[in-house]
Amino acid sequence: MSRIIRVASAQMGPIAKSESRAQVMTRLLDLMNEAKSRGAELVVFPELALTTFFPRWVIDDEAELDSYYEAAMPNNETAPLFDAAKRLGIGFYIGYAELILENGHKRRFNTSILVDRAGNITGKYRKVHLPGHAEPQPGRAHQHLEKRYFEPGNLGFPVWRAFGGVMGMCICNDRRWPETYRVMGLQGVDMVMLGYNTPYDHTGHGDIDALTNFHNHLSMQAGAYQNATWVVGTAKCGVEEGSKMLAQSAIIAPSGEIVAMASTIGDEVITAAADLDIGKRYRETIFDFSRHREPEAYRLIVERKGAIPPPETA
Ligand code: CDT
């Protein structure tokens, strides 16, 4: 059986606050059609791909806040994407803000789903690493209030057998954390899909923010190589409501090499033929986890037994 997935990353330019779900849907459908016309069987859309990146604002009005969330998926407004997936025979990853009602309480997550080629939801992931703050930070041009508007994900980092391989998901800031990839790597993940919204002023420190492009690829390339997996990272980018956001969506091989990269800061599709057996070769050699990892040593270090004590600080 072929272990090649023809995968697309469908980068999106800015989504204006005034843009309706129907308008966004038209863009998503155009991107999906473009991906299909290039032979893709799977397309990866960004994080929070249905709305503008609303955590940049303090939103006190609950009805307004709720308007950025999906209470069901699919719903009337997103159904056309699922219908198109089924008609075209193309799967997709998409990020959105999820609102659920549990015991009469609202719960909010930054979520992604994997939809198969028949238009059915195969997997759901809720973002674990929420960046930013719960309270507005004085002096910042744009807030980053993910900790105010979302709970940390409660589904772990599961993987799914789909598209002829083992598929995993994460979202934006998750890509900077080695644990994200390693937890999926230990489950034999072949491809990690992720979407991101990364403002260029995200830390507020000029020296760090100047390296935004570098750190984006560094994280994804290291995650791919060290875990013998493909990584598909898709941006929502450009200048969105005055906030300049990183582009450079990329498809990265288990070698750590970028095999396709977006060259614009707008809606753009890139594709690659991802041979999952490349990852298998790394997993059977340099990253044969069962032969070369030393979980007991890691456990001792974590428990600080047998570890060299850190130097005294003045
Ligand atoms: N959306 C998201 O997670 N963005 C973060 C940057 C914001 S940190 C205040 C990222 O890691 O790209």
The tally of helices reads 10
CA radius of gyration: 20 Å
Give the CATH superfamily. Carbon-nitrogen hydrolase
The level 1 CATH classification is Alpha Beta
Shape: globular
Uncertain segments of ≥5 residues (pLDDT<50)?
none
The total of beta strands comes to 15
Number of domains: 1
By secondary-structure content and strand pairing, the structural class works out as alpha/beta
What is the average of the pLDDT values?
96
CATH topology: Nitrilase/N-carbamoyl-D-aminoacid amidohydrolase
What portion of the residues fall into strands of 2 or more residues?
25-35%
The arrangement of helices and strands along the chain is EHEHEHEEEHEEHEHHEEEEEEHHH
**Main sheet attributes: strand count, strand direction, barrel closure:** 7 strands, mixed
Distance from N terminus to C terminus (CA atoms, Å) equals 61 Å
Q: What is bound: which ligands?
A: 4-methylsulfanyl-2-ureido-butyric acid
Give the second-level CATH assignment, the architecture. Answer: 4-Layer Sandwich
Fraction of residues in helices?
25-40%
